[in-house]
Amino acid sequence: MSSSLRVLPLGGLGEIGKNMTVLEQDGRIVVVDVGLRFPTPEMVGIDLVLPDFAYLRERAEDIEAIVITHGHEDHLGALPWVLRDLGDRLRARVYGGALTIAMARSKLDEHKLRDVELNDVEPGESIELGPFSLELVHMTHSIPDSSAVAIGTDLGTVLITGDYKFDQTPVDGAPADVSRLAELGREGVLLLCGDSTNVDREGFSPSESVVGPHLEEVFSRCEGRIVVTSFASNIHRVQQVVDAAHALDRKVALVGRSMRKNVGIGRNLGHIEIPDGLLVGPREINDFPDERVVIISTGSQGEPLSALRRMAYRDHPQVQLKGGDTVVFSATPIPGNERAVNETVDRLYHIGCDVITPREAPVHSSGHGYAEEVKLMLNLVKPRYVMPFHGDFKRLRLHAQLAEAVGVPAEDIFQGENGLPLDIDSRGARFGEHEQSGMIFVDGVEIGDMADVALRDRRMLSADGIFIVVVTIAEQDGSSVADPEVIFRGVPFLDQADELLEEIRDTVESSLTRAASEEIREVDLLQQVLHDDLAKLVYDRLKRRPMVLPVVVEV
Q: Per residue in 303-325, pLDDT tens?
């Protein structure tokens, strides 16, 4: 009798980002991808959002391996936090392609995590991991060394595609290993967990190699400096920008820490070639005429601290944009980032820059396959079961419809969500009981479950400010022994402060008198009474709801 297999997504379903999947058999675990995503505007003060991996905390010793499909943040970025949180109980090794592992090593070094065993895996190499076997299958995406992960089990092979497209003319000349995918299909794929990011786009995605000539054509029309912004991990795009700049006799400057770091890793591994003398430092940009400079920068998603965002707000220490500069967005906004990108673009126009986005010219090609490529994957591997991954609920539904269209029975297609495990055994497949899932917030260097009340308080502070009222009372009878001290910060439209302060003092006195008559002596209860009365007064006067924080001091 074969044992049962559990496939538990902890992130990446019903959302774009923070991909993380747990495969479990015979009490042993393999984790595929440990990604993050960036906070939405209402997550005030939050730096990063991680998948909730509480399920793994009590199972750290059962984890055989962590496998990373490729080096993008939504698949790799949470690795340092997971390793640090699980601590010494985690004996697992980390596997991935050479570039992926190099990026992981750089990220772990930043977090001073140097005792982790990191292993390069060549596509086609088979590795035994307890009851599992591991094989990486070469795929094409917007970063080199992208792989699908084939996990062998007693019941059959689970294929997690990672992010992919079927690019027939990739920049590095290495298309996806279609023959191995077809071979896995002939051998029998138990479950396909497939990328859903672009299932809503018909046809086939354009090849990455078509972007280069269009970049060169755009560059040839520019008379001033050119700033190209893209994902720092898109090594192939950087190569094409370098090639276009070289063809037009322009120097290239890399701006942004992650851009410099990733290009350095890519050059060391042979994924990018830059002619001698072409690169100049950011401080050397002004040593050359404007028409001879191309700047490659981070910030294509409008990230608050990115190089391009700082340039747009005239806050960058080395690059000051000016009228006549051209900024090329060689990327499209990740869903949820549209507002930040639009704000950056608007600021660039205010400076006087010309801005070129994929709307104006074909200067970007997605790394995710369109609907016909998703169908091709389904037909190549011929899975018994299908579980759409990596997409919001709309895209998961569309992926399920594509699977049904190519002949997968509807009852064998499982539209899941984070925390909902798919349990497979000899009798078939079915959803199990929900496990804990959700989000963990990174605030500074700390991680934790940022309670709704904390985020609500931050939103309140950012919108309406805060009143702090310090009240000093006698311990014996609760009467006021000094005038209350009132401090307010960030309260808008406070034109009649003196009059309101007097009303606050009167309200404090009446609240304390009422509390004394009702024999309310506990400090917590007194603070609640004061809060309710003061909050009502402030709203009546300002029609706003700032945070009201009463502090009671007994003497």
A: 877 899 999 999 899 999 999 99
Q: Quick one: tokens of 539? A: 């709203």
Contacts of 479 (CB under 8 A, 6+ apart): 473, 512, 516
Query: From CA 49, how far away is CA 52, in angstroms rounded?
Result: 9
| pTM value > 0.90 | no
Give the chain's domains with CATH numbers.
5-203+366-448 (3.60.15.10), 208-356 (3.40.50.10710), 452-554 (3.10.20.580)
CA distances from 456 to 42, 45, 50 (A): 9, 11, 19
Strand partners, 431: 422
d(CA 248, CA 194): 41
Q: Report helix, strand and coil shares of the chain as percent, to nearest 5.
A: 35, 25, 40
In order, the DSSP letters of 479-493 are -B-SPPEEEEES-TT
User: CB atoms < 10 A from the CB of 317, how many?
Assistant: 8
User: What tokens were used for 140?
Assistant: 């094409």
Catalytic residues: 195, 368
Tell me how crowded residue 18 is: count the other CB atoms within 10 A of its CB: 27
Distance (Å, whole) CA 514 – CA 409: 70
